[in-house]
């Protein structure tokens, strides 16, 4: 007991003899060397500005972020069935984290990189489209609770938008975009609608039914790649069009698919 009293007395004596200006100087030097964000940095600056009014243990310790972090965890499999590698998908306030069964971080997807998201209750597959190195990447995961995972991510994204004190811009379904045929070099217009894609060039006009579209991605940030299934030859036809709005074209097509998928889900349930 005596040793504890002596230690407590020495600690109080050390704090009382430490100059407040020296505390401010050392803390501000530490702030300059670390990256804790503007919000937290402002709180620390307000604290050291009032350090002369603080005594003893007036400063409350903040809990570790990992202890107060709210997250939901789901067990998923890579691919379209349960034969794929098993992972744990954690839905956080600002991103999605994939962990291996050993707990190691396998992948991370920030919400601002997430372009589109759909799920199919029949196949129990959830599809996530995101931007990676200027290209649109599709990731498929098999999970029995695909509906719960979908709405968990959707709710987290909506909360993230509300924290930013803004809202996502409302866009009409589809749109018109200027393009250039990579193969022929001919310029034209690409129109996305609910029925499919209409390609208009100077000498010809072509319509691609939505049911024939198998996949759409981007390459190098300015090339829109469209994979079309030809029912006559039973082969996949790859079309490439150059456009500064390639990402927006891909997003518009994915939104149409998502819109139709949501309509089918409402009819089923």
Automatic annotation (TrEMBL):
Pfam families the UniProt entry points to: Death_MADD, PH_MADD
Gene Ontology terms describing biological process: regulation of apoptotic process; regulation of Rab protein signal transduction
Record's keyword terms, sorted: Guanine-nucleotide releasing factor, Membrane
Species classification: Eukaryota, Metazoa, Spiralia, Gnathifera, Rotifera
GO cellular component terms listed in the entry, alphabetical order: cytosol; membrane
Name under which the protein is recorded: Uncharacterized protein
Gene Ontology molecular function terms on file: guanyl-nucleotide exchange factor activity
Ranges where the MAP kinase-activating death domain occurs: 19-46, 171-259
Compartments reported by the entry: Membrane
């Amino acid at each position: 007991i005596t040793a504890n009293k002596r230690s407590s007395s020495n600690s109080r004596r050390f704090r009382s003899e430490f100059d407040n200006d020296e505390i401010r100087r050392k803390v501000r030097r530490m702030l300059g060397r670390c990256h804790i964000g503007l919000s937290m940095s402002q709180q620390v600056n307000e604290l050291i500005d009032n350090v002369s009014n603080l005594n003893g243990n007036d400063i409350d310790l903040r809990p570790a972020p990992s202890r107060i972090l709210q997250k939901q965890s789901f067990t998923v499999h890579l691919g379209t069935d349960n034969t794929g590698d098993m992972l744990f998908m954690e839905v956080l306030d600002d991103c999605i984290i994939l962990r291996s069964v050993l707990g190691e971080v396998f992948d991370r997807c920030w919400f601002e990189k997430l372009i589109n998201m759909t799920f199919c209750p029949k196949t129990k597959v959830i599809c996530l489209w995101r931007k990676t190195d200027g290209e649109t990447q599709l990731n498929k995961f098999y999970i029995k609770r695909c509906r719960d995972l979908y709405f968990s991510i959707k709710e987290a994204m909506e909360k993230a938008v509300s924290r930013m004190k803004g809202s996502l811009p409302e866009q009409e379904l589809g749109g018109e975009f200027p393009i250039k045929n990579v193969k022929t070099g001919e310029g034209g217009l690409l129109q996305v609608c609910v029925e499919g894609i209409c390609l208009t060039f100077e000498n010809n006009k072509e319509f691609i039914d939505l049911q024939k579209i198998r996949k759409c991605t981007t390459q190098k940030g300015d090339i829109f790649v469209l994979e079309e299934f030809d029912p006559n030859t039973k082969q996949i036809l790859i079309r490439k069009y150059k456009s500064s709005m390639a990402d927006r074209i891909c997003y518009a097509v994915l939104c149409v698919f998502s819109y139709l998928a949501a309509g089918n889900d409402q009819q089923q349930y």
